[in-house]
Specification:
CATH topology of the largest domain: Rossmann fold
Number of domains: 2
Keywords: Cytoplasm, DNA-binding, Phosphoprotein, Transcription, Transcription regulation, Two-component regulatory system
CATH architecture of the largest domain: 3-Layer(aba) Sandwich
Protein name: Two component transcriptional regulator, winged helix family
Shape: globular
Structural class: alpha/beta
Strand order of the largest sheet: 2-1-3-4-5
InterPro entries: CheY-like_superfamily, OmpR/PhoB-type_DNA-bd, Sig_transdc_resp-reg_C-effctor, Sig_transdc_resp-reg_receiver, WalR-like, WH-like_DNA-bd_sf
Subcellular location: Cytoplasm
Order of helices and strands: EHEHEHEHEHEEEEHEHHEE
Strand content: 15-25%
GO biological process, one term: regulation of DNA-templated transcription
Distance between the termini: 21 Å
């Protein structure tokens, strides 16, 4: 899943980016509010991790812009402004959660996963689909109780399809979930990964929707 990190502090940004990537997220890192706004105009994100003290466009102004545009992407606010008034202002402006600096990376990733579960209408971490059990936190998949080894790309595609059951995902949408700004999109990679997933998890799991993309049917 693709996350937009908006943070102007290089030390904090590097740590958060590394932690989110380790947790299985694809991360785009914008260092000011203006660049983040441009990214949000052109890319669909599963989550935004947003600092409030940003140059050019403040985090609060960017948050209001996101909500005024009707974008309901989950937003986790990171800030050194820890007063009750600041937290209330951020939440009332449209933030979904608030984490004060300094923070622990394990708590950050746990809060990110909780926000994604809420956005996807799930109350528990595990995703069960027939004989398939997926644990997004541990990045593991089991078929009929047996663990199935998946590459990071296969894992990302599987999670994108399972969390959007019944909604066909285009090739470009799947590519968006896999590749960040600095990563080159591989030719025919989606088709290869889909083929590998079908071989490992069963041919019937992922259906091709002609001229549209791929879908996991809703259970």
């Amino acid at each position: 899943m693709r996350v937009l990190l908006v943070e102007d502090d290089d030390l904090i940004g590097c740590g958060v980016e590394a932690g989110l990537r380790q947790a299985g997220f694809t991360v785009d890192w914008a260092r000011d509010g203006h660049k983040a706004g441009l990214a949000l105009d052109t890319t669909s994100y599963a989550l935004v991790v947003l600092d409030l003290g940003l140059p050019r466009v403040s985090g609060m102004d960017l948050l209001k812009r996101i909500r005024d545009a009707g974008n309901d992407v989950p937003v986790l606010v990171l800030t050194a402004r820890g007063t009750v008034v600041d937290r209330v202002s951020g939440l009332e402006a449209g933030a979904d959660d608030y984490l004060g600096k300094p923070f622990d990376l394990t708590e950050l990733t746990a809060r990110c996963r909780a926000l994604l579960r809420r956005a996807q209408g799930r109350s528990v971490e595990l995703i069960c689909y027939g004989d398939l059990t997926v644990n997004p936190a541990a990045q593991t998949a089991q078929l009929a109780g047996t663990r199935v080894p998946l590459t990071s790309r296969e894992w990302a595609i599987l999670l994108q399809l399972l969390t959007n059951q019944g909604i066909p995902q285009s090739r470009s949408r799947l590519e968006e979930s896999l590749y960040g700004w600095q990563q080159e999109i591989e030719s025919n990679a989606i088709e290869v990964h889909i083929s590998n997933l079908r071989r490992k998890l069963g041919a019937k799991l992922i259906r091709t929707v002609r001229n549209i993309g791929y879908v996991v049917e809703k259970e």
